[in-house]
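Support request, please re-run this one:
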Amino acid sequence: MEKDTKSLAGERVLPLPSLVREALKTYRVMQAVERLAAGEGYGDGGYVLVDELGAVLNGRQLRVRAYKIMAENGLRRVRLYDGRASCPAYLANSGVPDYLLAEWAGRTNVKTTKKWYVKPDVADLLPAAEVWAGPAEGV
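Re-run finished. Output below.
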């Protein structure tokens, strides 16, 4: 499904992390092999997320494939939609400044970005728990 962004802030250029760039290169090779195998039957619409015949995947098909990959790799099953929030949360917990979080998330308001996308989990609270080690050790 293609649709316009909700706001002008959503229309932006982001740098591609090297990990993602390498994964896409690998995927491009895989698609080339599938294209050769399918021959004339391959539909090349220019999309990245396609099946073995080049047909665009819908949301349900993407979820099924993603959940299968998660299971095969022993990963916890996470909704794909939550991936959007995990990126700003990871960046925030890694010390990226708030104004860059808002830009990355396509938001004009930093407060809204943190409210909707940055939700700490138990692992994120570990540094705060470590602070308590100081008084216990007499620091």
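The mean pLDDT is 86. Helices lie at 18-38, 59-72, 82-93, 98-105, 110-117, 126-131, 133-136.
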